[in-house]
Amino acid sequence: MRSDAWYAGDDRNAYIHRAWMRRGVPSSAFEGRPQIAIANTASDLTPCNSHLNEVAASVSNGIYEAGGIPLNLPVVSLGETLVRPTAMLWRNMAAMATEEMLRANPIDGVVLLGGCDKTIPSLLMAASSVDLPAVVVPGGPMLTGTFRGVPLGCGTDVWRLSEEQRAGTLSQEDFLKSESATIRSRGHCNTMGTASTMGLLAEALGTVVPGTAGTPAPDSRLLEAAHNTGRLAVEMVAADRRPSTFLTKASFSNAIVALAAIGGSTNAVVHLLAIAGRLGIDLTLDDFDRIGSRVPLLVDLAPAGRFLMEDLHRAGGLLAVLREVQDLLDPAALTVTGKPLVDYLSPAAIWDAEVIRPRAEPLLDEGGIAVLRGNLAPSGAVIKPAAASAHLLQHRGQAVVFDSIEDFHARVDDPDLPVDATSVLVLRGCGPKGYPGMPEVANLPLPKKLLELGIRDVVRICDGRMSGTAYGTVVLHVAPEAAAGGPLALVQDGDWISLDVAARTLNLDVPEDELALRKPSAEAARGYAAPQRGWEKLYVEHVLQADTGADLDFLIGSSGSQVSRESH
Ligand code: FES
Fold it and tell me: Ligand 1 atom 1: the closest Cα is on which residue?
């Protein structure tokens, strides 16, 4: 085993390694027993993951029961709601730090514990680059909270409530009262936001024991699954079942089908592209449109729909959804168990056809993500038609441009803002380099003067991302971003912009010769001064654009698990 390079033998180094790790365990702990790390993103500052120490204890029991040695490995944790300036700035750092700690330590396999949005992506990016046997336990969603008898979708209803408060239909006092009801239990957001999406997609990829993802965080079945996953990790080491042996293009194809069928977050696009990049898999932005755009939407979950994650689990969960679209899945794609994903679908059943629609009665015939191109997005942009307003999917309107999110906040409620229901709101300076970190700001709140007219959606275009818990006719991930010299930097107030989702086009209707004369202002090209030190400097100098997953250029691919040199 890999850990033998630390523990086997009678020399001084082996003595040192064993002596420091004895901690009361017998010498047999170092004799042929797999050393399994539990990469744990539990943190009090990541409330969505704060229960993962309990999950880790169950994983640990399973590892020990199967003959392995469990080793708790706290890794960088990212809490979506607290971390500044945006958790996405730190996803690649978390992935790099985890990758290096897995490589640096005497471990033979790893169980990955994540939950909040960036944690499962960063863990999977890391494990893919190290390529040791690895399996995920998604931390699971919180239970449904209610306020005045109405279920609250965490993350989604705060947008609705705050817009109602801004529109004057909800008092400030009532708005604040709802605060204590919105997070009912431990666990991540209970809408089909990014955390829910990535937990389910980790299973669709084959990196989770089938049937586990989506189990609510407080549900005792999560601990049972965690225990069994610990056992499986030991088996995976014996079988040398590494990510490169079961994660293939077919796995990503299945994840894209699942993403559409569940109506998952647009953020999954950048995360799946980044994970694939670590594995050397040729996944492109266009694959999302080609494979997923015509997959029916079957799951009726907020933000676009009615139900929440607890309902999805009760209704049959991911496997029941995948059974409905089994003909679209690649039967060759394997899972952590060594068996194909499709082998787990026959016992699955829909227990509530309001939450999970049968294939014959989809919520939408086409639930996937559409990829747009044109002179405003030469490298692509994405839109989630299922979360958009049907009447805006083909639209031509005049731009109202904001150079940064601060510029937007300063002017959005100006009574003189030249905006009406036909306007196209453009926000730039929010891409990977521009913000930096590509924050979730693309779902701009509407100007007050539009809200007061009863308007709830207009076309919005941004080089940033959108929260998976948000909705609206939002074109996002525009690439190249303004700060990387993309044409978004050239748009001026009053320019006509044409969006045609059916034709997959996004164009700035300004003659090429006029565009050639325009120069982006420094502020338009980058909303804030270039970082001078630390991670932000490294990030801005090396981050790639959204269309390839916004990873750092030097982190693409794999380093493997071998670290041959040692010096004390
Ligand atoms: Fe953690 Fe939403 S804040 S998943």
Answer: 116
pLDDT tens by residue, 251-294: 999 999 999 999 999 999 999 999 999 999 999 999 999 999 98
Ligand 1 in contact with 271 (CB < 6 A)? no
Kindly state whether residues 21 and 64 are assigned to the same domain: no
Is 80 touching ligand 1 by the criterion CB < 6 Å? yes
* 315 within ligand 1 shell (Cβ under 6 A): no
Q: pTM for the full model?
A: 0.96
Q: Are residues 134 and 158 in the same domain?
A: no
Question: 321 and 446 share a domain?
Answer: no
Q: pLDDT by residue (tens digit) across 424-458?
A: 999 999 999 999 999 999 999 999 999 889 998 99
Domain range spanning residue 309? 33-144+184-344
Nearest protein CA to atom 2 of ligand 1, as residue: 189
Residue 485 has which token pair? 């010299």
Residues 16 and 114 in one domain: no
Q: How far is CA 82 from the centre of its chain?
A: 17
Distances in whole angstroms, Cα of residue 503 to Cα of each of 395, 403, 491, 515: 12, 28, 22, 23
Q: How far is CA 45 from CA 48, 89, 124, 146, 223, in A?
A: 9, 17, 21, 24, 22
Q: How far is the CA of 281 from the centre of ligand 1 (A)?
A: 28
460 occurs within a structural domain: yes
